[in-house]
Each structure stands twice: as C-alpha cells, then as structure tokens.
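User: Last request for today: this protein with zinc ion, please.
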Amino acid sequence: MTANTGPDWLGAALEEIPGVRVVRDRDELSTFETDWTRRFTGVARMACLPRDTAGVAGVLAFCARTSVPVVPQGGNTGLVGGSVPRGGELVLSTRGLVALSPVDANAAQVTAGAGVTLERLQQHVRAAGFDFGVDLAARGSATVGGMFATNAGGTRVLRYGSMREQVVGFEAVLPNGGVVSRLGGLPKDNTGYDLGSLLCGSEGTLAVVTRLRLRLVPLLPARAVALVGVVVPADAVTLAARLRRACPSLESLELFHPDGLALVRAHSGLRPPFARDCGAYLVAECAARTDPTEELATALLECPEVVESALATGRPEREALWAYRERHTESINAEGVPVKLDVAVPVAGVASFLRAVRGEVGQAAAGARAIIFGHLGEGNFHVNLLGANEHEEAATAAVLKLVASLGGSISSEHGVGVAKAAYLGLTRSPADQAAMRAIKAAIDPSGIMNPGVIFPA
Ligand code: FAD
Ligand code: MLT
Ligand code: ZN
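Assistant: Here's the final one, the structure of the complex with zinc ion:
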C-alpha cells in the first residue's frame, strides 16, 4: 500500500484495496448517516463497500494500524443507533457481500454473504422447498449479517428460536484483519470456544461478519392466522398460554393494544378489525404441512378470554390480519421520532409489567404516549415513547428499571446499541461487565470496532 500523507490519506489507502468502493460524496454519505427511526444520526468520515472477505480484511487491518474507528453497517434497519456513525467514523457497509450459494438440500443449509437481505434469502430458499426460521417486518432491507450481529428475533422465535439458533457456521474478519471461518456446515463442532455464538449479538463491536452458513427449516405450505380481541391485556397472557398448550403448529403469538391499532389505522387507512373495541389484541399463526385452521379454531373456541376473533387461511386474508400488527413500526415512525425500548420479562411477570409500565412512563414523562406491542410468546415487548421530549432519559430509566425489577432484559432482540449502553449495569453485574470488557479488549485492542456501542463511549 502506498504511503499517502495527504488530506485524503484514508480514502486513497482504502481505494488501493482490490474491490473496495469508497464513498466521499456528502449526498451519498448521508444515506449511511441516519438510522431508520431518525433518532440517531452522525457524520461519517467516509464509507467503504468491500465486495468480498479479502476487501473487508484489508480495510480492517488498515484501520487497526491507523486507529480509524469503524461502524459496520448492513441494511441500517437497526433500532438502537448501532449502525450509524456518532462522529467521524468510517462506515463499512456490507451491501456488496451478496453471494448466495445454491441450497444444500441434503444438509438443509445455505451459505449467504452478510449483505444478503432476509427477503432475498427467503425467496432463494423457498424456491428450493425450504424456509428460514427467522422472519421480521424489515425483511426487504435487513441483512443476514445485521441479523446475526444483533441476534435478531422477530415473529417466529416461539417455534424456531432467534438468529443464533439458525446459524451453523460463520466467517468473520477480526479487527487485525485475521479471518475466522467455520463454513463447513457441521451442526456439531465442539472444538474450543464457540466464537460464532460470541459474535452473534456482538453488534459490530468485535468483528465484521462476512458470510453465514444457515440452517433451513421445512417450508410449511398450510397456514392459519387468527386476530383475537380480549377485554384486558392479562387475558391475552392467559389465552397465549392456552394456545401454546393446544396448538402444536403454533408459530407466532403477537400482542398489540387499542392505541397502537388506532395509530396504525390513522396512518394506513385500514378498517377496524371488529365492530367493537377491545382492550388488547392477539395475533396467532399456525403453520403445518396440512391445514391447521381447524386446530386453531377449535383451540380458540375453548378459550373464554376471546371476545372477538377473525380467522384467515388464504395468503391475502392472512396478510390483512398481520397488517394490524406489522404496520405498528412504520405508523409510530410516521407520528414522530420514537424512543424505542425493546424489553422482555419472564412469563410470570408479563401481566405485572403490562399493568405497571404506562404508570411508570406517565410519572417520568407527563404527556408522553407509550405504544406497546410485541412478541407475547417470549414476553418481549416494544415500548415506544412518543412526545417524551426532555423527559426521554427519565422515561427510559423508569421503564428499564421496572423491567430489571421483574428479572427481565433491557435488550431483548434489538441489541444494546448506543441507546441503552448507559443502562447495561441494570441487568449485568460488575463481574459480568468486566468479563465482557475483557473480551472486547482482547479481540479489539485498539478499540476501533463500533466504539460507544454496548459499552458507553
Ligand atoms: P444494521 O441496522 O445495519 O446494523 C445493526 C447492528 O449490527 C449494528 O450495530 C451494526 O454495526 C451491526 N452489523 C451489521 N452488519 C454487520 C456485520 N456484517 N458484521 C458485524 N456487525 C454488523 N428486529 C428484531 O429482532 N425483530 C423484529 O421483529 C424486528 N422488526 C423490525 C421491523 C422494522 C420495520 C424495522 C425497521 C426493524 C425491525 N427490527 C427487528 C430491527 C432490525 O431489522 C434488526 O435489528 C436487524 O437485525 C438489523 O439488520 P441490518 O442489516 O439492518 O443491520
Ligand atoms: C417488531 O417487532 O415489529 C420490531 O421489533 C420493530 C419494532 O420494535 O418497532
Ligand atoms: Zn420485535
């Protein structure tokens, strides 16, 4: 690499790495600088898009030598501010890492570049008679690398687990440019530390993931979706427990409230789902090789909590019911810039959490609205605060402390990012944090990987 000490020494050096495109143009750079919610924004020094693993290795090795901080970015749909620069970092975009292997039907596996979007992966594997175990509404933009880095959850965790459970192997570039690769497709391999598991959920603070060997699940052609209205949120919790016991083909259990429904309807023009208003709504989906409609319908008939219900089997009708739940995120975003708190509580604490959380928000931020929805199956709720203004941090602290007091998680599926770095101590002991920092220091001694994410800057 040529020594270049001019003002553009970084760009010039990165451009010498084969296959790396460098972005300096401010208009193009702005597309990398603000997150999906518009809450997190910062100036990038520049961005670079390697097209293969060697390119990523070249970039990271150079940045480590010259102490240039790096923010890895996939689809930029992350919701905790970890995918955008805070001030002058190099954005390393994985959008050029888009290779996708043929489906290995015997192993039920596929190898995908980190920049492959979930939607492209789904289309690819469904054409071969398989499916992917994680699904989420950002599927058109979210990349498998970003989903791995955040250990994404979504709407099928109940059945298949989160992203970590879908990963058979990985390839990643460490900050010193070293490449770690486990792409052989071995479902069982206990040779030393499980680095893949460590990197999954590390939010770009340890390495850049370049390829993933992914486990596939059977494509289940028959589906049934129910939208159910209940009187109070606690009834949804009881109903969810009943459905789990009664429906072996259950795949999703999602919750939303009347205020969220009103917001979705205001921004989408959807009609009310039922003639009367309900206190809470549950979406349940079953999937199987043969039609699970009767299984779901019979189970619902035996649940006294159900006061309204709609059942759909055909794809357009199912999507119409899902829309009330899936369109929450975009509707909240259309209403303002939200503070998004992705939390989880143990099943035993769900009803208490749902009873207490609005009061906590009201006390900390009078006038703020809390739109709460999420993945009831895992006790994972998205508390979206609108209009908290100068009380954002007070309201955040109040909600997260409530969660901690119930033995929950302050970061269930979105990650810690920068949004919750200051609150790590609420659910991680000093010993825990020291171990995490030691790992960070060992793998990234110059601290170039996504500084400020997980641990406060
Ligand atoms: P980015 O946003 O680009 O990055 C996320 C984090 O991962 C950052 O810290 C970044 O530095 C790091 N990163 C990205 N790529 C790499 C890589 N290759 N190597 C190392 N680090 C990397 N999340 C859920 O869990 N469940 C949901 O149901 C869900 N629904 C969503 C719905 C909508 C409408 C939106 C906008 C978001 C939703 N999300 C959900 C959040 C988001 O889609 C996930 O966090 C997703 O995993 C992010 O993928 P991405 O490619 O956009 O990553
Ligand atoms: C969801 O479950 O819809 C997502 O995690 C996105 C969000 O929290 O808004
Ligand atoms: Zn979610």
